[in-house]
Amino acid sequence: MNDRVLEKLKEGARKFYEEVHAEKREQYQRAASTPQQPHTLIIACADSRVDPEAITSSGPGQVFVARNVGNMVPPYSNTPGGITAVIEYAVSALKVKHAVVCGHSDCGAMKALLNPKSTENLPTVRYWLNHGQAALMVSESMAKGNEDALKRLRRLTEENVLMQLAHLKTHPSVAGAMARGELTVSGWVYDIGEGVVRIAEEGQREFVPVTAGVRA
Predict the structure, then answer these.
(1) Is residue 29 part of a domain?
(2) Which of 66, 119, 159, 160 lies 20 to 30 angstroms, CA to CA, from 203?
(3) Contact 69, 46 (CB under 8 A)
(4) Is-catalytic flag, 47?
(5) Radius of gyration in angstroms for the set of CA atoms belonging to the chain, rounded to a whole number
(6) Residue from 47, 155, 167, 171 carrying the catalytic annotation
(7) Sorting pLDDT into bands at 50, 70 and 90, what band is 17?
(8) What is the pLDDT of residues 42-70, one digit of tens each?
(9) In the chain, where does DSSP find H-type helix?
């Protein structure tokens, strides 16, 4: 079983080399010989159905991506972690101009927040999802009547993105860059099935489809 999976990965790597890389060889060679200068930091979910580079039609060197369960951003503290380091490096060293927190439809992390029993045997995951507890409380406080599960999940996904954006702004590198007008931020929700991204720009709570006003 494992050997078959590895062979599939090898086949994919060969296809990338022979087709994708070959077609864009000059672009990749430039990327390899010059320091990276990404314009955007994207903090996305680790879900295997989410591909930030594909969603944004980005090439090598254009976006700096960090992924984790639930697209969480721990608030800044004196206990450094991987996401904290990524944020600091992207903003202070690479000088990205924009930062995105990207959630998505059918998110397992959001489902786990709504159903805590599902993580009883996943203690590390449960601990990590504590970063979404405030979003859960906000989302549940906004519930009206007997909502269906999909509506609860959609609202929590949005509230979690907004909450993680708030956490992002507690990081000194981000706060400083935003105060100087060097960095902007936005929250995204990607619909896997429809292929549509909805965006809440800085200071907004409404997620507006990027396709709004675009003629089909």
Answers:
(1) yes
(2) 66
(3) yes
(4) yes
(5) 19
(6) 47
(7) very high
(8) 999 999 999 999 999 999 999 999 999 99
(9) 2-15, 22-23, 25-33, 52-55, 82-88, 108-114, 123-128, 133-141, 149-168, 172-179
- Asked if residue 104 and residue 9 are part of one domain, the reply reads no
Tokens of 99: 């930062």
Q: Annotated catalytic, 104? A: yes
Catalytic annotation, pick one of 14, 25, 30, 49? 49
Number of domains within the chain: 2
Catalytic residue among 102, 104, 154, 198: 104
- The reply to whether 102 belongs to the active site is no
User: Residue 80 above 90 pLDDT?
Assistant: no
Both tokens assigned to 178: 């935003």
Please give the model's pTM, rounded to 2 decimal places: 0.92
Q: Is residue 148 part of a domain?
A: yes
Domain of residue 141, residue span: 38-209
106 is catalytic: no
Spot the catalytic one: 102, 107, 131, 155: 107
Which residue type sits at 130?
Answer: N
Q: What angle, rounded to 10 degrees, do the helices at 149-168 and 133-141 form?
A: 130
